[in-house]
Amino acid sequence: MKRVALALVVSGLALSGTAIAQGADPVAAIAAAVADAQRPETDTARDAARKPAEIVAFAGVKPGAIVAEMAPGGGYYTRILAKAVGPEGKVYAMVPAAFANRPGAMDAINALAAQYPNVRVVTVDYADIKLPEPVDLVWTTENYHDFHNGPTANVAAINSSVFSALKPGGIFFVEDHAAADGAGTTVTSTLHRIEPAAVVREMTAAGFALDAQSDLLKNPADPKTAGVRDPSVQGETEKFAMRFRKPA
Questions:
Q1: Is CATH 3.40.50.150 the classification given to domain 3-10+19-245?
Q2: Half-sphere exposure of 127 toward its Cβ, with a 13 Å CA cutoff?
Q3: Residue 85 · residue 92 · CB < 8 Å
Q4: What percent of the chain has pLDDT over 70?
Q5: Is the CA virtual torsion 157, 158, 161, 166 positive or negative?
Q6: How open is the CA angle 14-60-67, to the nearest 5 degrees?
């Protein structure tokens, strides 16, 4: 996407209650975040497929925003978000207790937080999120399908918890691997995919309104019949991106 188009996308997305630094340019902030020299080569090598500048713009991230990221993993987006929101913004990297309690599991994300002063790592129960303040944006990428997996999975509780954590008018941004039409949630633990329509149904039930959806990561060559780690599609799966808004 060219800079002009990206500017139009960013300027059209206002996160309710976000404190924007005077004179801050969201387009420049996002471009600088993606170009950040601290990003490892293993991350930048994935940029062509993941289109981070366009995705962050679509989500509505702006300088000064308060973002809560669910399951930050290796920090691919944590680094970009930290730079994009800038020193007047914050990123809460939310890690579930089951992961945090594993020996050494927190080393990487804690090291990342040491590099980016506006990143705070917090251990939470996703079904009962407790943060120091309401947030403008809750972010999750390639993880939502996993919220359906496990013997105690409760997606309705998770979505309700996210709803409560957001400011009025706030956004829940979801990007994930697309399952075939009609698959619903039946392949979340096998193919690690979810049907976009199923996500919309679950979000609507939680009180969110679908604000926008993007085809940025659409890939018609993906048959959606293989797991996301299958060599035939790994790194090239079709993904969907959606913004869900909490009513103001």
A1: yes
A2: 9
A3: no
A4: 91
A5: negative
A6: 105
In the three-class reduction of DSSP (H, G, I as helix; E, B as strand; rest coil), residue 4 is classed as: helix
Residue linked to tokens 């890690």: 95
Residues 6+ apart with CB under 8 A from 134: 17, 66, 165, 166, 167, 170
Q: Which residues 6+ apart lie within 8 Å of 64 measured at CB?
A: 18, 19, 20, 21, 24, 85, 86, 88, 89
Place of tokens 């937080």: 113
Question: What SS3 class is residue 96?
Answer: strand
Pairing state between β 209-214 and 135-141: unpaired
Whether the full predicted model's pTM is greater than 0.70, yes or no, is yes
pLDDT digits (tens, 9 = 90+) for 44-71: 999 999 999 999 999 999 999 999 999 9
* Listed residue (113, 12, 10) closest to 62, CA to CA: 10
According to DSSP, the residues that pair with 95 across neighbouring strands are 123
Separation between Cα atoms, residue 65 and residue 172, nearest integer Å = 13
Q: What are phi and psi of 110, to 5 degrees?
A: -70, -35
